[in-house]
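Hi again,

Forgot to attach this to my earlier email, sorry! This is the prediction with NAP bound. I've pasted everything inline since the attachment limit keeps bouncing my files.
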Amino acid sequence: MKTALVTGGSKGIGKAISLELGKDCKVYIGYNSSKEKAELVAKKIIDSGGIAEIVEINVANNNSVLTAFEKIESNGDNIDILINNAGVTKDNIFPRMKEDEWQEIIQTNLTGNFYTSQRALKNMIKNKWGRIIFISSVVGISGNKGQSNYAASKAGVIGFAKSISKEMGSRNITSNVVAPGYIDTDMTSSINDESRENIIDQLSIKRIGKPEDVANVVAFLSKEESEYITGQVIAVDGGMTT
Ligand code: NAP
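Structure tokens for the complex follow:
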């Protein structure tokens, strides 16, 4: 059985990914502030006959990342599948954006993936097998008003993931990006009804995305059967970016 780590695995898209991977893998549900929610996700997997544990991991802090991997390894586990899902927003129109608003988003959404991926690759290289899946965003492809920091972090993830795919393909390690469109989670809960309707108007598939829409694609990319797919960006966006 493979072992997966999902950063930010306790809610939203990360929760759906954890539950889906929990059908076939041992899952470490990463949490930063939502420990109780992580415990509930683990319980749900275990109640369905799966294996899950929770692990504290603040991706913006390399010491926290290293401690989390030490804990996982001290349990006798190695991460075969890394899901770089944790992410935050701090929106502001660019002329008014403060440097700390820029740095915080780059640190969590981009540099955090550097810490987790480099650490996870140690064992993947040794085992000659691995899957790294990055949760970017269509905003990293198209840009978005008020989200220059977030768009830069999510675009950075794409170049980063493609570079890893080229370096690691010969070791049976794939590196792919899933770029969600508008998905119903806490991150998008402040968008008002009128804006939601406007977004739906622009989609080919006339509904807001569900976390499970993203999780199903991530689950496929984490499997053996996806071994010939690497360096790709797959939008899960109801046709927003076509
Ligand atoms: P969400 O419900 O707000 O969840 C965000 C997750 O990120 C939480 O589990 C949170 O963990 C974790 N997190 C935040 N800062 C962290 C840190 N420093 N270290 C570790 N974990 C941290 O948002 P979501 O919509 O599920 O977002 C998941 C991913 O999808 C993000 O990368 C986001 O950018 C991306 N995305 C979302 C949408 C959308 O429409 N929802 C669209 C495109 C891309 P704690 O609660 O434990 O702190």
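The beta strands are 3-6, 26-31, 51-56, 81-84, 130-135, 173-180, 233-236. The radius of gyration is 17 Å.

That should be everything now.

G.
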